Amino acid sequence: MLILQRVKNQARAVKCQANLHQWGLIFSAYTTGNDGRFWPLGYTHLWYNVLEAWRYEDLCFCPMAVKVNPNQQRSDSGDLFSIGSKFTAWEINWNVPPGPRPDGKPDRGSYGLNMWITDSIYYNVEQQFFPKRPANVPVFMDCCLPDDAPRGDYDYEHAPPEYDDAGPCLIIVFPDGISSFCINRHDGGINVLFMDWSVRKVGLKELWTLKWHREFNTKNKWTRAGGVRPTDWPEWMRKFKDY
Predict the structure, then answer these.
(1) pLDDT tens per residue across span 81-104
(2) What is the pLDDT at residue 207?
(3) pLDDT tens digit sequence for 121-166
(4) What is the separation, in whole angstroms, between the first and last Cα of the chain?
(5) Rounded CA gap, 218 and 45, in Å?
(6) Whole-structure pTM over 0.85, yes or no?
(7) Which residues contact 58 (CB under 8 A, 6 or more apart)?
(8) Is residue 186 part of a domain?
(9) HSE of 99 in the Cβ direction (CA atoms, 13 Å)?
């Protein structure tokens, strides 16, 4: 039984990477037609709105997380959020613009965008890196929110989740940064689409070594180069490979 489950999970991981390869083609098509640029960062410019013409429902879900988390919370503006988890998807019912999708369905999925690859007034990652498109800049990946990323050097945005499948807890007030992506969905890692449109599995601790934005310190305190010790990690993560 365990062997059969392992084989099924491996097949789902392969399908997840295939999905992300398709998203690489979508992002490439968009940026090619937009002078090599992503869209502006903004409330009405979320990836599932901008890419509506390219989006196919089945591509929005990692095969390990196709069912929506039934637990909801409401924002100050009245939006209903279901935060995803290791094996559930997120869902958003908009109460304000951009509103619901043209088909009236809520937005849902189990992948999330690195928000700083958009044309942000804060970091402008895409202006910094195009046309080189380096392989260490994460674009789109397994996530329990539609988008997130560490904004700076705030501890709460860098700290790993305290326990397995903790999920983000500050969605309405603050972003959760890397912890939104730190979910043990694929045997110690997640699948990631990078800015060179390559796709590979990334170890959970490896997330802290990626170039999330142009000012992100890839030798921060949660990396081997920054002096992290095995005992610094939450207990559930200590078994994973160090980077």
Answers:
(1) 888 999 999 988 766 555 555 665
(2) 96
(3) 544 444 555 556 688 999 999 999 998 888 665 554 578 999 898 7
(4) 33
(5) 28
(6) yes
(7) 19
(8) yes
(9) 4
Domains of the chain: total: 1
Residues 6+ apart with CB under 8 A from 23: 59, 111, 140, 193
In a domain, 243, yes or no: no
Query: What number is the average pLDDT over the span 195-222?
Result: 92
Structural contact between residues 40 and 33, judged by C-beta atoms closer than 8 angstroms: no
Residue 38 within any structural domain of the chain: yes
Please give the residue range of the domain that contains residue 88.
2-237
Decide: 133 and 32 in contact? Cβ < 8 Å: no
Does pLDDT of 48 surpass 80?
yes
Q: Is 130 a member of any domain?
A: yes
On whether the CB atoms of residues 182 and 207 are closer than 8 A, the answer is yes
